[in-house]
Design goal:
This protein is mainly α. The protein contains three helices and no strands.
Length: about 90
């Protein structure tokens, strides 16, 4: 698998996990007493964070929220030097 394919596959996983979080959030908004759904929502958040961290460790931050302040001060705002997702 090429580096490009690996990056795209991992980015797709991030998007999929974010979608799952949104769906569980919408469901739990209308079913706040469903304990099973709340547990699924918590797990989805953890899973999405893990996939996002995996992507960011390998390919860099996905958003400004991902850049710790100390890192930003030490290395500058280089987050925008990589190609944007639509440029890949």
């Amino acid at each position: 698998m090429s580096a490009f394919d690996e990056r795209m596959n991992l980015l797709k996983k991030v998007q999929q996990m974010d979608f799952v979080v949104v769906e569980w959030t919408l469901y739990t908004d209308t079913h706040p007493d469903d304990e099973d759904a709340l547990e699924q929502w918590r797990e989805a958040i953890k899973d999405a964070a893990a996939v996002r961290k995996q992507y960011e460790n390998k390919f860099g931050p996905l958003s400004l929220k991902s850049i710790p302040s100390r890192q930003a001060l030490e290395v500058g705002w280089r987050w925008n030097q990589d190609p944007w997702p639509w440029q890949l």
